[in-house]
Amino acid sequence: MVAALTGLAYTITPQLDQALYGDQLAVAAVGDQPTTLAQQVTAARAAHPDGTIATVAPGAGDRTTRVVFSLEKLGDKQHTVYVDPYTGEVTGQLTTWFGSTPATTWLDDLHRNLHLGEVGRHYSEIAASWLWVLVLGGVILWWRRRSATRARTTHLLIPDLTARKGVRRTRGWHATTGVWLAVGLLFLSATGLTWSRYAGANFGAGLDVLRAGTPELSTTLDGVPPPASGGGHQHGGAVTGTADNPASFDIVLTSARGAGLSGPVAISPAAESGQAWTVAQVDNTWPVAKDRISVDPTTGGVTDRSDFADWPLLARLSSLGIQAHMGILFGPVNQILLAALALGLLCVIVWGYRMWWQRRPTRAGRRAPLGAPPARGGVRGLPWWALPLGGPVTVALGWVLPWLGVTLLGFLFIDIALGMLTRRRGRPIPRLTRPRPVADPAPLSGRHRCGAAGQRWSRVGQRGREPVTGGMAR
Fold first, then answer.
1. What is the mean pLDDT of residues 86-97?
2. Could you tell me the domains of the chain?
């Protein structure tokens, strides 16, 4: 529920940014001819003399130019100066994170870690790790119930509106809505896990083994040995050489346009002296433009190139999946779909809790605060092949998705501990037994019927095995 609420809030960030930071992000009037990039960088440097230039994203249309500075005191965040490309005037300054405004960064942190740091990241990864399990489990349970009761196929996708008020009606809305949302929720679970801490690291390692990761772009110039160490292209590292010369940005931009990199681009000076600069297309809306080149800032020559069309299939799918997860890939349509998924998931969760509340048992004429726990012994009812096949699969999933494995072990430990505690107290543990024929041939109600043979599971409780009759079980 927390992930759905925070994700729903994140879907409105483009409109929120425009409302809060419109003066920084957009120009007052679109001119005929922009000023040189050197003039814009000089204006940004005059407004903010500290730090090193990490990235410059030239403005186009009604968008301002973004000059991003790295400062050690900001950690993984940056200081962005916004410049009107037509007048060369600074329109504002913000502390950003990978280009995101403060409001978007705050909502992003809320969704990723609840502003709790690493503890919150673990919580989010646990939620994403279990989401696909709950979705598939729910779909399977609903399919089996519909098949067992020989319900019409349409009731798999449409709730039975003839059902009376109560748990049956709630269950219908809960299940059918979940079926409609299943594909979207599985997509969110998979794409969210790809950049989580532990499962994401395993995913990246798998891509490396398959040589299916994002290709590296070489920044080594001919005759210049690679640096011994250095920071990334966008964060950290002292910028030396021609990086302090604003004219180099115009040289590199001209080379990028000549190499076919149209649309929005980001220019990143080299983090080490004697290395090439990089220019990357940053249009993440469909059809995406994500080609990259390395450019010698002195001569303007292109030294290396990586086109998005040449990336391995898994790398392209991963990139597109992340953009869709963030609501960027298909623009407003993407935002609407994500908002619908979040609202639908919230409804499914609320109906699930309502169904659980409606099914709580009656004790001594009063409703009990909690429902009865599931009966033990369900594993013994599995087919013979389930454990040999399911055991290794479960172990493998627990290794690939570490938080899924850890929490599953925790659930098993708690279940075993509760069973041992119940035995020590001398209280018989309710167990599932094999189905047996109903003694009374009288027709059963829909509540107690199980299959055409008229069988159902019986439970062994404190009073021993209860007789099952054609009417209500005691």
1. 96
2. 2-113 (3.10.450.40), 223-229+236-310 (3.10.450), 388-431 (no CATH), 433-474 (no CATH)
